[in-house]
Design brief:
TIM Barrel; 17% strand; globular; alpha/beta; eight-stranded parallel beta barrel; Deoxyribose-phosphate aldolase; 223 residues; 8 strands
Length: 223
Amino acid sequence: MKPINNYIDHTLLKASATTTEIGKLCEEAKLYKFHSVCVNSCYVSLAKELLEYSDVKICSVVGFPLGAMSTKAKVAEATQALSDGADEIDMVINIGLLKGKDFDGVWKDIEAVKKHMPNNTLKVILETCYLDELEIIKASELAIQSGADFIKTSTGFGTEGATLNDVKLMKSVCSDSTSTKIKASGGIKDHETALKYINLGVDRLGTSSGIAIVNGVASSSKY
């Protein structure tokens, strides 16, 4: 197993996040050598400036947190974020289309974003708290079919974050794919919980509690 800090996308996505807080996030990511910082797209250029001489990658969310934006809007946001310096994109699946069984609409939405970033990492957020088991499996299949590099459990803004059972379902689909990985996010706040997900085969953790996880203490943060 690689060092636990290398699994972590150090995350700050709350609506009230300030430039000062983003600056602190980036400094923490450099200090603890996290894999990336994950920020809203308006802060990508700032993060790029602050992390210019580090190995920390920049992740931007797209269509966040509802996933109900038009495909053109998601493509435009992703394209701008990449232009501003993002290395990775975490986009939210169109949950309503999935639940309405418009599966072509779901995969075309994801595929359109991936086409604009063939050389960058795309993580597709399923928002599993709104899905039943069959929908989680179907959403995972559609994301993989559409070229997702990762499937991700949650935004952290839904009714629940990651669960071990949801990750097991996602893993059952990924076992047939040699390239698509899993990111767990939402509610991962301590070292013990983080290890449970890693031991299930998760390759990335989205959390605002990365420092607590690395230091082996609990955190009161939601995401």
